[in-house]
Amino acid sequence: MAAYGALVSLVQIIVQIQSHPQPPISLDQKQIEYLTQLITFLQNFLEGYSSNAGYTEEEDFWERRIAEAAYDAEDVIESYIVDQILARSGNDVVKISSIEFYQGAQKVIENMNLIKIGIKEKMVVQNQQHIIKSITTVASGSWTRV
Q1: CB 85 within 8 A of CB 24
Q2: Which of 11, 45, 111, 128 is the most exposed place for a label (fewest CB within 10 A)?
Q3: Residues 32, 18: contact at Cβ < 8 Å?
Q4: How many angstroms from the chain centroid is the CA of residue 32?
Q5: At a CB cut-off of 8 Å and minimum separation 6, what does 118 contact?
Q6: Residue 142 pLDDT > 70, yes or no?
């Protein structure tokens, strides 16, 4: 499952930066906390549907979106790290400013949040369909006993 692996990789990058004695970049703590919450939600979602018998097209759609979002987050973080390292070494590079990095990270977080909202909406609809199906089954069973 590519999406789950991408999320694990993203978590590892964040942990390495936070635990590094002299991190190449500083991460906004509120962004990291929210990003970590989103990652946890998405991992739980992927774990839940991966145990189902088979994938549906909709589940494949969500997995692709999650993987793309995780890769985008990695790209934003890693590009900023590379730019900071090159800038410190004196190479003539176009440096990404802290503001641009913050905005890039915010965009990634917003995208992951939209995915989370979409998944939650999907879960609500599925729960409603399950309830309706259960009520219909119970109701049709009581009609046959009369």
Answers
A1: yes
A2: 128
A3: yes
A4: 12
A5: 62, 65
A6: no
- State which amino acid sits at residue 63: E
Percent of the chain at pLDDT exceeding 70? 78
Identify the three-state secondary structure at position 137. helix
CATH code assigned at 44: 1.20.930
What residues contact residue 13 under an 8 Å CB cut-off, 6+ apart? 74, 77, 78
Question: Mean pLDDT throughout 27-52?
Answer: 87
Largest CA distance in the chain: 86
Written as six digits, the tokens of 103 are: 């905005």
Give the model confidence (pLDDT) of 64-88 as tens digits: 999 999 999 999 999 888 888 777 7
Which tokens is 105 given? 């990270």
Q: Which two tokens stand for residue 68?
A: 């793309």
Number of domain units in the chain:
1
Beta-carbon contacts of 107 under 8 Å, excluding residues fewer than 6 positions away, are 76
Buried b (16+ CB within 10 A) or exposed e, 29-55: eeeeebbeebbebbbebbeeeeeeeee
Question: What is the reported pLDDT for 132?
Answer: 75
Range of the domain at 59: 2-145
